[in-house]
Model the fold of this input.
Amino acid sequence: MASQHSILVVDDDTALRTVLVEQLAQDGEFEPTEADSLAQAEQQLAGTHARFDVILLDISLPDGDGRDYCKKLRVRGIKTPIILLTGHMEENDVVSGLDAGANDYVAKPFRLNELLARLRAQMRAFEGSEDAVFNIGSYTFRPAAKQLTDIGRNKKVRLTDKESAILKFLYRAAGKPVSRQVLLNEVWGYNAAVTTHTLETHIYRLRQKIELDPAVSRLLLTEGGGYRLNADCSVPAA
Done:
């Protein structure tokens, strides 16, 4: 099973939000978090372990305009894809939303399949962009650059394509173990010529690069018949 994508749904329409969250979570592709106001959205985004892959943001909320909030998030340096939800699709509304930094605009009522397609498209574009930055321990991880940076230790780690793909997939698993076979399928594809030994070799090399002590893994753990990324681990300074 592929890893879940975390999504923040911000809408004050309780009925719509409840149905949308249920449908998004139904097949396990998304892990939704709810907010019924900008204040609640701010709390969710400020959470210690908050990592959202995409934000669905209504423009008409009881404590403000979603477009203004979108602009504030961009000023703060938050690059997460934002899709605005609105009951209006006049040209001026669309233009103002995109000018505020939104990646896309969806009118209510919407078809779920269309919304899902737009969500996936925005996440794919973001993950391949230079803006995508993930925190792994004391490192910042830029998949597009295939690089980990630890400013505190003045350390940069260059990754191969496969090493970067392994880290990105494990990160998307949000701390859950991923079996060796799933990792093989996701990173190498359904190729019978590739064995678990190949994966184990790449994991070994990754640990040599990113662990303070490769013999005592703190970030890249062996667990549940596969591997788990402990992205929230604080790696002590050398």
Summary: The first strand starts at residue 5 and ends at 10. The first helix runs from residue 14 to 25. The radius of gyration is 19 Å. The domain at 5-127 is CATH 3.40.50.2300 (Rossmann fold).
